[in-house]
Design goal:
- Helix content is 0%, strand content 57%.
- The protein is built from no helices and eleven strands.
- Strands 2, 4, 5, 6, 9, 10 and 11 form a seven-stranded mixed β-sheet that branches. A four-stranded antiparallel β-sheet has the order 1-3-8-7, with no helix packed on it.
- β4 and β5 form a beta hairpin.
- The protein starts with a strand and ends with a strand.
- 29% of the residues are buried.
């Protein structure tokens, strides 16, 4: 009942910036907290940043001061502004939302972020 579509990934040099977007459709009124996760080859999926419906945010230590999560509830869209990118940020980034509607958590398809040098 909720669909998430990500965009904005790509190839960027170290020190550069990208902004990821996640557009939600379906039962968007049911959305609660949302977040961005990432998964690099050989690693487990990890939480990068999360934001509650009230706007409270939480970040992984590795991205604090560089990444900013935000949401536009009117547009049902989640964003991740990524600045000062490092090669270790290279991963597939996934949008995640929790909802009052079963199955209660929803995932986007993922978007590749590759940081060179």
């Amino acid at each position: 009942q909720v669909q998430l579509v990500e965009s904005g990934g790509g190839l960027v040099q170290a020190g550069g910036s990208l902004r990821l977007s996640c557009a939600a459709s379906g039962s968007t009124f049911s959305l609660n907290a949302m977040g961005w996760y990432r998964q690099a080859p050989g690693k487990q999926r990890e939480l990068v940043a999360a934001i509650t419906s009230g706007g409270s945010t939480n970040y992984a230590d590795s991205v604090k001061g560089r990444f900013t999560i935000s949401r536009d509830n009117a547009k049902s869209t989640l964003y991740l502004q990524m600045n000062s990118l490092k090669p270790e940020d290279t991963a597939v980034y996934y949008c995640k939302a929790d909802s009052d509607v079963r199955p209660y958590d929803y995932w986007g398809q993922g978007t590749q972020v590759t940081v060179s040098s």
